[in-house]
Amino acid sequence: MNDARIKAILNNTQYQEYIRKNQDREQQRKYCKHGWEHSFDVARVAYILALEAGRDQIAVLNKELVYAAALLHDIGRWKQYDNGVDHARVGAELAGEILQEAGFNEEEIHTVREAIRCHRRPEQAACILGTILYRADKTVRLCRQCTARDDCNKFSEMEIIQEGRVY
Question: What is the model's pTM?
């Protein structure tokens, strides 16, 4: 993995600002939060899932693309809180400039942006990386230990995922 491009994402001032905005909007949120920890957890699990998917199916993906997509997948959340827009769609748009500044080429940027765009719903995940992001995003949630799980709509989704029905 070329750590320089991932470090460039992490050091990008816009990326840092988007994560801070997410954290600001979620200070009083009793459900899962979408800060640094969540992004890193999703990146790690997504990479494991990508490896498990097998190299035949994900020949175009590499660790760097998986990490880039995972680190950037929720950067539009603050806009969803502010304006009600789909954070996946907005996040895909916001990710473009960050990826370009980090040194990703046009094909890689397209791959990552498409994965971010379709990471919310597995039925819309026409791309394998979007499906992997969806699964990783849900897998890292600690729903069974969450004190807010009775009020949260994600807990029933987690049961479905753990039963293997979204793979």
Answer: 0.79
